[in-house]
Amino acid sequence: PVIVTGSLDIASAILLEASLSFFGLGDANLISWGGMLNIAQPYLRQAWWMAVFPGIAISLVVLSFNVLGDALNDALNPRLQETA
Fold this sequence. Notes:
Elements: H1 2-22, H2 33-40, H3 49-76, H4 78-83
Helix pairs in contact: 1-2, 1-3, 2-3
């Protein structure tokens, strides 16, 4: 179903935006988790939390959208309902 694909695509879009911002290819005027990781990179030894918390936030949000997509797939996929 389209809603399942959409929820999984949101997770991919979040990872793509964070990756582009981390590599400096995003908009410098916007706040982004990838931008936060990029800024925190030189300070990892002194201020490790600057990178850890945005990284945890990215991981949790992407994991949440993936779990949501799997749950919607299980609930809405007619092929899975026929075998049960």
